[in-house]
Amino acid sequence: MRKTGELIDGRYKILRKLGEGGMSVVYLAVNEKVNKHWAIKEVKKEGVENFETVHQRLLTEADILKRLHHPNLPDIVDIIENEETFLLVMDYIEGRQLESIVQEYGPQKEETVVNWGKQLCDVLSYLHSQNPPIIYRDMKPANVMVQKDGKVVLIDFGTAREFKESQAEDTLCLGTCGYAAPEQYKGQGQSDIRTDIYCLGVTLYYLLTGHNPICKPYEIYPIRYWNTNLSSGLEMIILKCTRKNPSKRYQSCEELQQELSHYYKLDIEYQKSQKIKKLMLFCFLGLTIVSGFLSLVFYREEKELVKNAYEDCLYEAQRQRGKEQYQACYQAAITLKPKDSRAYKALLETFLWKDNEEQEELQGYSVCFFSEKEEKFIREMLGITKEGNKRNEEYLKSRKREYESFAYILGLAYFYSYNGTGNKAAAEKWLKIAGEGKPSQGLQEAEIIRAQKLWKIASYYDRLGMYHQGGDVRISYKDYWGDLTEIVKHEKKNRYKSKDLLFAYKEILSQMITSAFQFAGAGVTKAEMEKQLREIEEGLDAMKIEKGSANAVYEEEMKRNLCENLSAAHHSIEAAFEEGSGENE
């Protein structure tokens, strides 16, 4: 047992013991030099049966966590191993295990459990999106910490493994009795994404009912068997999660998360009320057809039907995982209401932030990527005609403020994210529309200014560095440098959204990597470029991604990619100003 005040590896001072398991002890420690608290998991080699297996599990846990960065996962910072012990140093998560909360306070409110469930779906989706997918395999209340702000953190990756398509079944039966899926027992097949969905379903079951399936009656009952006040929709979701046949469960955590977000719509009472409403509507419509004098009311009801169908299309699009499926839903929504900008915006946001199968090979960005196929589909949606051969873009224009707001999003997508040729030229039209717009609910003043600054660059980008017949440069790279730094200043000044500053950093950083020689030749000094690079590095270090935002995971990945490209920018600057290369120091 470590003593309070004991120093480990000359850096970590033991404060107290946090917990103890069968194989390990976890301590709270502090690095006094930086005043940072850490959790240290220690496994003593002596006296541990099958230490090599335990050792391999610890190495697996460390290897996996080192590669992952997600707000609902702890970061691992150090591995210390000597002849007697093996230690993992990781983030200290201040909070309580979900298991201990239920043990002390009993079953939790369904709204609280659904919130936890959606967060766990998000972090599991992140694990499953890795290449190859990482299967957690030991989801249970004891492995989930909840902090004071309600954020949950998934801990203990000792049983996680990378999914191997060629492997028919698991080599070890790992998991926790009561929470483990049937396929986790030897001979029952290989664990995969659906295994984690089963374990999550059992975890939600325990949090709602307080009953562990390893205790009597030794099986999962419908949750309303224990509490008739619980949602029938939530009951259906948990029963589907915990089907013995993996093919009968939800096939992805994204699908499960969508269902949890709208679980009340699955309630029997809700379904009955909807059927009654529809029956009343159909009866009313029948009377309307018979009674000509009610034609105005019929028109209003028809509009209501279109409105509801539009909302259903948007909802279904969010539930779909396949590109063809969600594109079809958005296309149906646009066909129903071509004037409404929401479907266009949601489609574009999905392309940029949610669906990133292709990657930007030169810079390694796997988020905020706008492919040529996606750009073509957007153009098709704007060009489809309804009655009267009127293009959808013309319908959209009729709502000027919504059109300007959509133009802003599309302009930024072309400028920053499009991987086809002529991205800046394609952005010019849309940035001009947004830049000439007026502040509104969908387009803030800071966004209009941003559009104007980017529009300026887009308008001359294709002529950058070209000469007049008289020999003068039309637009020099020094002018371009000035405009790029102005955009960065604008984002830092406004502190509008972290992703906008990330975009600005990405643009100027990529230009320093690819055009450092041109900047140097145009008169931009080495000191100016190095100063800008330092400011970017400091800005990234200080940047706090809003954890609860819809795109937090993707913004974290952008930030990480930018940090990785700082050295490449530095090398480009050095090369540009080597003796005989650059003109200005």
In terms of quaternary structure, what is this?
single chain
What do the pLDDT scores average to? 81
In CATH, the homologous superfamily of the domain at 96-266 goes by the name Transferase(Phosphotransferase) domain 1
The count of β-strands is 11
Radius of gyration: 28 Å
Instruction: Give the CATH architecture of the domain at 96-266.
Output: Orthogonal Bundle
Keywords: ATP-binding, Kinase, Membrane, Nucleotide-binding, Transferase, Transmembrane, Transmembrane helix
Domain Protein kinase: 12-265
Binding site for ATP: 41
Protein name: Serine/threonine-protein kinase PrkC
What do these coordinates show?
The protein has 20 helices and 11 strands. The chain has 585 residues and is α+β, with helices and mostly antiparallel strands. Among the domains are: 7-91, 2-Layer Sandwich (Phosphorylase Kinase, domain 1); 96-266, Transferase(Phosphotransferase), domain 1, CATH 1.10.510.10; 464-585, no CATH class. α14 (400-417) packs antiparallel against α15 and α18 runs parallel beside α20. The chain is flat and about 75 Å long. The chain starts with 6 loop residues before the first strand and ends in a 9-residue tail after the last helix.
